[in-house]
C-alpha cells in the first residue's frame, strides 16, 4: 500500500490533533505543542478535556469552528477507527496516524475516501524537529 505524502500534510493550513492531552509527557500533548511551536493553526481533539495548553479542546471534529485540512491521530487503534469515520464525514484531506495509532481498516477506509494517509510508523515529531 502506498504511504501518504508527508509534504502535503505539512503544507496544510489548519490541523487537529486527535488524542491531544493536557499531560505534557504524553505524545498527544507533544505533537499538539510541536505543531503550535511550528506556527501552525492547531486544534486539540479530546472528549475528556475542556482545555489543552490554553486552547479550547473539542470532543469531535463536528464541534470544531472549522474543518481542519490535516489531522494527526494519537489514539488507540479502536479509537482511530471512530476518528477516521468522523474525518471522512467532515472532509479532512490529510491524516497522519502516529506510531501506535495505526489501524488497517481505518487506513483502508480513509484511502478509499481519497484522504492522504500516512501510517508507516513515521512520527511527525521527528519531521517537525528537523523541519
Structural write-up:
This is CoA-binding domain-containing protein. Residues 9-101 form the CoA-binding domain. The chain is of the alpha/beta class and 131 residues long. It has a single domain, classed as NAD(P)-binding Rossmann-like Domain (Rossmann fold). The chain is 35% helix and 19% strand. It has 5 helices and 7 strands. It has helices spanning 6-10, 27-37, 77-90, 104-112, 124-130; strands at residues 14-18, 41-45, 51-52, 55-56, 70-73, 94-97, 116-118. The strands form 2 sheets. The chain has a 5-stranded parallel beta sheet with strand order 2-1-5-6-7, sandwiched between helices. The two termini are 26 Å apart.
Keywords:
alpha/beta; Rossmann fold; two-stranded antiparallel sheet; 35% helix; globular; 5-stranded parallel beta sheet; 131 residues; 5 helices; 19% strand
Task: Determine the structural class based on helices, strands and strand pairing.
Answer: alpha/beta
Proportion of residues in extended strands? 15-25%
Can you tell me the CATH topology?
Rossmann fold
Categorize the overall geometry: globular
Uncertain runs with pLDDT below 50, 5 residues or more?
Answer: none
Radius of gyration using CA atoms only: 13 Å
Number of helices: 5
Tell me the series of helices and strands, N- to C-terminal: HEHEEEEHEHEH
Compute the average pLDDT: 94
| Major sheet | 5 strands, parallel
- Helical residue percent band: 25-40%
Number of strands: 7
CATH architecture identity: 3-Layer(aba) Sandwich
Report the CATH C-level class.
Alpha Beta
- CATH superfamily assignment? NAD(P)-binding Rossmann-like Domain
Spatial sequence of strands, sheet with the most strands: 2-1-5-6-7
